[in-house]
């Protein structure tokens, strides 16, 4: 197989009598994702996409094994360039300097949607088998009439000089009736591709759209389309654009011209000649987008501001908005205010259009995305309503609203015990059709900060950083246990293990004792009562009262799953118990989290220090099953491929932490707590 060049994504068997071009070999070490490849198509070679199995069997062939490119237009003996992006790479975050937001503007039928299709194809955003003409025109009416009615957005990934760029494209309608769509989309961009039919030249909507783009201070890249047509005259049309656009804009902008003392026009000397239909000049357009359109300003640190440029109603998800984050960051679960209606909403979902909707956790300044929101009143009141109704029937239940950075909006509830908590959750889910997550019960700590402030902290995620806190005080209760004398020993052992401070023991009768301890409330809120009952075979009883706060050596124990901190699993524990709790918690989580296709590390950390670690082994498919005997190198190759796949999955994989895991801290071995 001397004439076969391989790389992980490119397989290039050539016809027997064609010598392999030397540069194929240079490609072999490239990573398949996020790479731009250039190769030469040898004479006689015909090109097939790997999706097309029947044709792919024919030799010679060029096979691309991941979604990427449009090769059909490439001619034998010509150079082609293509970028390869693996599916999930589309969601990788790039720095703001590598984001480009642009629109395509043109007169009707000058080829915007056809160009958008090609851009999606060339960047590997849409696979060939998913591709259909006018991909972004997804309304039936748009397809029937062959026109764009609604603006559409898509996020593409493009590799330029070995760096990944995120290109946000907004396709706009050309017809005059829908020009308000154009104005909205332009406000969300820094640049625009001005597509002009090279056979027809400047038309009314070309001018109207240019004005709008200039008003929005956009960088305009002129693109002369349809150069494949016999009547195409790109040079004449370039000149026409310069003259007509320059003249008209200056007429409209007299004031501006005199102010700036210069003529505003459009330089068409570097206009790109393209044929969207034939796929000519598409890479030049992509390169120009990166080179000529400025990136958005990096204002991630500022408070959130976003511009909504479109919206629609989804029967299942409610109102879906298209927006561009102008400043700050928007996260799923954020409370946001819509300035037009001055109403508060809860951000249910945040996503990107790639071009199908994909959910993400957050979007930063400069990014374009979609989101669905629920009116803060509606969402909040649904749970509140359910709790209020349940309270009618369960007077012991108490609740107050609370917000958590990790979980969003919720209620802090008071229960009688663990069983009561489970019952309330079950009832809310069954009777009111809600899906809820309950976190492990916690107490309110008092944190004395180095600047003299005292803050109350009910949630480990709200604990000030280690450097900012002087001391932590925890609530202490006086607990009185009444028990037959046979169980005195075991109950004292229980209290001792829960950091109890012995106060006194009295015999009320010959056989019955009363033991008093001072106990941190945090040690009692979990399963203390259950333990007391189980150790005394149900004979002991207890009562407690709050006595005050006491300084204690407490620290925050973080849990990392696959390298990410899972905020709701963080706990505040006593320093002496941190190692035991950390070890037990990681072991418990290992039992509770379902196996993934890749290895998942579960770690307990204090600050940056890992104090306990477990690993959830990967589910393994027997990739050697189909190998009957054969060379060992074949098996090694399959195993290596599997290991690489798992490594990739580990980098992108998201793990769903089941509800039981959030309660894991309560279910640790009784010796630990
Ligand atoms: N020959 C040739 N035809 C093209 C080219 N680009 C687009 N077309 C054709 O021009 C027609 C209009 O193309 P569209 O992409 O729908 O034009 P549009 O600007 O998006 O139209 P609206 O969305 O309605 O404004 C279609 O029939 C395309 O096949 C090209 O480069 N060469």
Describe it:
The structure is a single chain. The chain has 17 helices and 32 strands. With 673 residues, the chain is an alpha+beta fold. It has a six-stranded mixed sheet with strand order 7-8-6-9-10-11, with helices on both faces. It starts with a strand and ends in an 11-residue tail after the last helix. It binds guanosine-5'-triphosphate (GTP). Guanosine-5'-triphosphate binds next to helix 3.
Contiguous uncertain segments of 5+ residues: 1-74, 79-89, 250-263
Small-molecule components bound: guanosine-5'-triphosphate
Major sheet, described briefly? 6 strands, mixed
Total count of strands = 32
Q: Indicate the multimeric state.
A: single chain
Read across the widest sheet, the strand sequence of neighbours is: 7-8-6-9-10-11
Give a short overview:
It is built from 17 helices and 32 strands.
List keywords for this structure.
26% helix; 17 helices; six-stranded antiparallel sheet; elongated; alpha+beta; 673 residues; 32 strands; binds guanosine-5'-triphosphate
């Amino acid at each position: 197989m001397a004439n076969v060049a391989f790389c992980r994504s490119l397989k290039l068997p050539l016809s027997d009598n064609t010598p392999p071009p030397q540069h194929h070999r240079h490609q072999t070490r490239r990573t398949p994702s996020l790479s731009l490849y250039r190769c030469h198509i040898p004479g006689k070679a015909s090109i097939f996409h790997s999706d097309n199995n029947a044709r792919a069997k024919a030799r010679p062939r060029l096979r691309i094994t991941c979604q990427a490119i449009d090769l059909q237009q490439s001619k034998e003996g010509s150079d082609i360039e293509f970028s390869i992006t693996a599916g999930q790479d589309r969601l990788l975050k790039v720095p703001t300097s590598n984001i480009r937001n642009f629109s395509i503007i043109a007169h009707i039928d000058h080829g915007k949607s056809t160009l958008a299709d090609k851009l999606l194809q060339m960047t590997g955003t849409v696979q060939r088998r998913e591709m259909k003409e006018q991909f972004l025109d997804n309304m039936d009416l748009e397809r029937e009439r062959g026109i764009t009615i609604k603006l559409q957005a898509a996020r593409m990934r493009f590799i330029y000089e070995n760096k990944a760029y995120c290109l946000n494209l907004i396709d706009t309608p050309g017809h005059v009736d829908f020009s308000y769509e154009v104005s909205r989309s332009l406000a969300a961009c820094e640049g625009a591709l001005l597509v002009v039919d090279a056979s027809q030249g400047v038309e009314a909507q070309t001018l109207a759209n240019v004005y709008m783009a200039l008003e929005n201070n956009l960088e305009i890249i002129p693109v002369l389309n349809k150069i494949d047509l016999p009547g195409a005259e790109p040079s004449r049309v370039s000149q026409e654009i310069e003259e007509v656009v320059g003249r008209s804009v200056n007429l409209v902008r007299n004031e501006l011209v005199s102010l700036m003392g210069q003529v505003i026009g459009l330089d068409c000397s570097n206009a790109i000649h393209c044929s969207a239909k034939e796929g000519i000049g598409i890479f030049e357009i992509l390169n120009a987008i990166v080179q000529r359109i400025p990136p958005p300003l990096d204002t991630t640190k500022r408070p959130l501001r976003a511009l909504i440029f479109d919206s629609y109603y989804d029967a299942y998800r409610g109102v879906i908005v298209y927006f561009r984050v102008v400043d700050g960051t928007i996260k799923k679960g954020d409370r946001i205010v819509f300035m037009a209606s001055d109403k508060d909403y809860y951000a249910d979902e945040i996503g990107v259009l790639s071009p199908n909707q994909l959910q993400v956790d957050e979007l930063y300044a400069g990014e374009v995305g979609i989101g669905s929101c629920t009116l803060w009143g509606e969402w909040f009141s649904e749970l509140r309503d359910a709790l209020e109704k349940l309270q009618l029937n369960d007077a012991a239940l108490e609740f107050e609203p609370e917000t958590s950075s990790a979980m969003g909006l919720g209620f802090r509830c008071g229960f009688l015990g663990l069983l009561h908590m489970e019952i309330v959750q079950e009832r809310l889910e069954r009777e009111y059709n809600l899906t809820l997550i309950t976190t492990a019960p916690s107490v309110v700590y008092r944190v004395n900060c180095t600047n003299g402030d005292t803050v109350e902290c009910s949630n480990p995620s709200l604990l000030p950083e280690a450097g900012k806190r002087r001391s932590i005080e925890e609530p202490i209760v006086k607990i009185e246990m009444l028990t037959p004398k046979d169980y005195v020993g075991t109950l004292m052992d229980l209290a001792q293990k829960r950091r109890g401070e012995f106060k006194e023991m009295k015999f009320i009768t010959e056989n019955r004792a009363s033991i008093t301890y001072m106990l941190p409330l945090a040690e009692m809120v979990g399963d203390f009562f259950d333990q007391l009952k189980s150790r005394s075979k149900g004979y002991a009883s207890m009562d407690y009262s709050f006595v005050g706060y006491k300084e204690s050596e407490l620290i925050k124990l973080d849990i990392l799953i696959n390298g990410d901190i899972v905020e709701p699993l963080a706990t505040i524990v006593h320093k002496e118990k941190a190692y035991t709790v950390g070890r037990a918690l990681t072991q418990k989580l290992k039992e509770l989290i379902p196996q993934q296709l890749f290895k998942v590390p579960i770690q307990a950390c204090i600050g940056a220090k890992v104090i306990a670690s477990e690993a959830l082994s990967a589910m393994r498919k027997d990739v050697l099953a189909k190998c009957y005997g054969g060379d060992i190198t074949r098996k090694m190759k399959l195993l290596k491929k599997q290991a690489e796949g798992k490594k990739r999955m580990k980098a992108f994989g998201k793990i769903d932490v089941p509800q039981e895991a959030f309660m894991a801290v309560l279910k640790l071995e009784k010796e630990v707590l």
